[in-house]
């Protein structure tokens, strides 16, 4: 799966704050994602993240 820094993704499960949209801050074996609702940052392994993604909402173009 092609995931880049700056992508906004929607996950299947929502964050405890109620948000489902996250921005990718770091990519690699582990991802750091930021909840767009409460700004909490979460570290998650690539395998878990790829299973939880519902869709990639927008991609930052440079």
What can you see in these coordinates?
The protein is mainly beta. It has one domain (8-58). It has 1 helix and 5 strands; from the N terminus they run ββββαβ. A 5-stranded antiparallel sheet has the order 4-3-2-1-5, covered by helices on one side. β3 (30-35) and β4 (41-45) form a beta hairpin. The longest helix has 7 residues, at 46-52. It is globular, with a radius of gyration of 10 Å. The protein starts with 7 loop residues before the first strand and ends with a strand. The model has no long low-confidence stretch (mean pLDDT 91).
Features:
62 residues, mainly beta, five-stranded antiparallel beta sheet, 1 helix
Describe how the helices and strands are arranged.
Blueprint: E1 8-11, E2 21-26, E3 30-35, E4 41-45, H1 46-52, E5 53-58
Antiparallel strand pairs: 1-2, 1-5, 2-3, 3-4
């Amino acid at each position: 799966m092609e995931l880049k820094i700056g992508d906004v993704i929607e996950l299947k499960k929502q964050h405890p704050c109620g948000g489902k949209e996250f921005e990718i801050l770091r990519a690699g074996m582990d991802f750091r994602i930021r909840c767009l609702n409460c700004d909490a940052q979460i570290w998650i392994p690539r395998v878990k993240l790829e299973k939880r993604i519902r869709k990639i909402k927008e991609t930052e173009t440079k």
